[in-house]
Lipoprotein (Phytopseudomonas punonensis), 90 residues
Amino acid sequence: MKAWILLPIALLAGCSATTSYRDSCASQLDAAWQELDLAKAEGFAGTVSYSKAASLMTAAKTQQQFEAYRGCTNKSEKARFYIRESRAGR
């Protein structure tokens, strides 16, 4: 009987965590795309770091579509790191 009471609570707790990562995924991915466009406009599209960032962002977008929001957030953050590296010439 107690399990039937605790199950909905556990499910709701999981949903709230998913929502926070969903928002983070979307905002990180949007920011990364904007930064990638700037890096391309500045002429850094040929760097290895730029290529790594573009690959990570493609993977992040795929994870977003499959509702793997935590992975999307992590990949978007890594992509933004590589974009900064690209713009720094590394």
Q: What stands out?
A: The two ends are 60 Å apart (CA to CA). The chain has one domain: 22-88. The CA atoms of residues 35 and 84 lie 8 Å apart. Residues 9-13 have pLDDT under 50 and may be disordered.
